[in-house]
Request: fold
Amino acid sequence: MIHRDSTMNDITNISKQIADLINKHQNFWVTTHIHPDGDGLASMLLMKLLLEQHSKNVIAIVDDHIPRKFDFFHSFHEIITDVADGRLGQPDIVFALDASNISRLGDIEKIIPKSATLINIDHHVSNDYFGDINLVVGEASSAAEVTWQVLEYCNVKMNSNVATLVYSGIICDTGRFTFPNTSARALDICSKMVSEGASSADIADKIYFRSSQSTILGLVESLSTLQFHYQGKVASMVLSNDFMCKHDHIDTEGFVDNLLAVDGTEVEFFMKEHNKDCFRVSFRSKNHVDVNEVAKIFGGGGHRRAAGATICGDAQTVKLKIVDALETFFN
Ligand code: 5GP
Ligand code: MN
Reply:
């Protein structure tokens, strides 16, 4: 049985509005955030599957490169990554999945027609309700969990593709069932998905055990920069743009999670220099620090225990800025 909570009435009402819009319209886009992760992609492709079961025209569009480890997701190869692609057409409805604000959609923000209805389905506490319809469930483990609730309401036909996407979205955002958002509900849903044909071993194999050699070398390089701050309560590491340029296809998703292994750390952060002197920073925390608030200082956001921001400057300056911003928690 799936556990129900107090927001269930809202979820049902909004799911009904979404179901009505699906019935009335024919042309849809589904999209997710830049630097797409397993949860965003799985949620987007789940919505595409539902819409296609209702014989709708659906375009999946993401304004970024899609990590190849997700190439086993149903209709992965149909995702369009060029916002000027001639196949886009004019959508009546646009679904944004796993995006906490409109700028997280990259240039897709600029090409959504004014006439389209924007439906925002998400689980970030920092979500700013940018949609015409907003289904935001802050206590959900993942956008895939929220999307699954809509699919259930719409009586999606179950098959192993649906099960694989729901399961994958949830494991990606719960750190393979290790983060505090690994709720009874998330586990219940995953159990159901395994019964419906999701293979936990195959999915783990595809997502986690196919890293390129460059990715592992990138991890080694990042770990070699490990530093501790505030008597070991904060751990940081950096990957330079020079290194990224010398090695193709480094997938840094999950690098920061290695720092969680250190006993006694409370906050972990990883700085990836994606352009010269511009860093994508991933924050994690174990207990009392709300890293969403820390990321917000730098114009980013996310969740209490996992958040991100883009911060520009040379490596030393950016690191000092972050360490300074954490001072209130650690002295
Ligand atoms: P990650 O560190 O894994 O890239 O991201 C952790 C969480 O923070 C994810 O839920 C991600 O969506 C969110 N996040 C990462 N970067 C940003 C950002 O620049 N802005 C906002 N609003 N959220 C972010
Ligand atoms: Mn997510």
Q: What stands out?
A: The chain has a mean pLDDT of 96. Residues 213-330 form a domain with the Diaminopimelate Epimerase; Chain A, domain 1 fold (CATH 3.10.310.30).
